């Protein structure tokens, strides 16, 4: 590497790059300080970013290579968010945001091309800093922009909207070959599926330690209330129908057990032994000590097709082929060939000790059926029927309920879901699908399903139904054109694929009125179709709704009409911050929170899920606040945690999610602080209801 001097505001900087560098610097709401010599002899200059919308420092030079490298020290006792913008030759500008931790001097590295953890098969990248080639490195794992820059001429370093002055010490800047990005992901997972570079309470280093931790007895819950056989409160009694049902008692909605007692559903999603699967094909270099695919370990290796074309899997690499199940392999290490039966016994005991009374969606019914545990089932409607794109489409496009093939698929799905359980009193009820794309993000997202319907193919059953509705109202297409403020005089103008329907506006209120009518009709058709099929196959059990992730008022109202319970996946600190509870009170229908969770990054997996808390102890506090608020609301009849075990460090098969959300880790070792806090909160919730 050539020894070429670099200058930063008059400071001689040790060489990193192999190209000439100009020393011009521009300061905007940034105060330049003195050069400071650090222990070890390195010199850096202090820059203080003042309270402003975007204080920034701009460097001009000519840096060529695969990654930009900047010596920097956060001079504050807390982490600082730093934004970096790079401009140069060979591609579009690049943008990165990094959290710069407090501590000693470190090398900040930005790859000179767009990248993200999705390029490595996961949704969240490894924590920073990490040690590489003897230095402390903070890598920008997400870089937005074009395909890549051949050289950088402008580097902007900004601190977004600081509320107080924030100081950084800056030193050498330059480029080097693009090697740090791969190094950040190399060898990150050990043979137990744990993150290798971190340490935390409960991390295991040997099979003996694993067995001891998993087999540690679980203390029974203190002060557990006596209940009926299903977990209902004995101090209140209403009609016993022999099935779970919903009833309003003293102005409060309640689930009622088959024996006639109120029941607040405290559930856990994905209580199953196959949640530890992660793709290894093409990225074996990320894993150390991966067991062979022969002998006893062959049972934990498998093959899977591509994740599919959904918004959740868009841009994910390493999305097919060989996978390894770290969670199940650890269960085998603990209990040998009888691991599955042992896991079922252990898991049932844990759930009871922690105050959970329901198996949530995607759980293994072997835990419940025949073992006095309430469970749920999902109606998964699949088939070759039409669909509508809303632009959200996280799990795929919206099913077209006007398509006769959808009606047939719903009948098949309901028949499959009800098979063998229609006479089981321990079944709470059925969900229909999961997080359908009823809306899209943004202020106009409410109308996405209406606009997407009109954009569809002429043969779309939904589009034909929408146009028929409009024709019945207006008769003449010219009247529609006037009402919507568009130049339409013939109905044929709306039929071609790609028709650009207008957004609602104050000057033309008919647009919103017509879209609302369509959204109601669409949701009515969907929920009525499922409800009628369900009642043909199972007249007893509850229809628990559609597990709304995104929704519109029209969809919720239709669900309230056809479903026994409204279900929502709520990712917020409190239920009232994720739900419009006054509107739900007006609908006067019971509400089940079918998913919620809180995650942190101090127990191995890199992600937190949608709602992050600072550390593990705060997960328990957040759980208690959420469940307390849910139990206090008169329409909420339960809350189900997502999920039982942590997701794999390198991402689950479905969509690369890799968050710390579990009651137990990938090793099946409980997070004792969290599970204890959850148990106390669950007991209090039962008392509240």
From TrEMBL:
<feature type="signal peptide">
    <location>
        <begin position="1"/>
        <end position="19"/>
    </location>
</feature>
<keyword id="KW-0732">Signal</keyword>
<dbReference type="InterPro" id="IPR017853">
    <property type="entry name" value="GH"/>
</dbReference>
<protein>
    <submittedName>
        <fullName>Beta-agarase</fullName>
    </submittedName>
</protein>
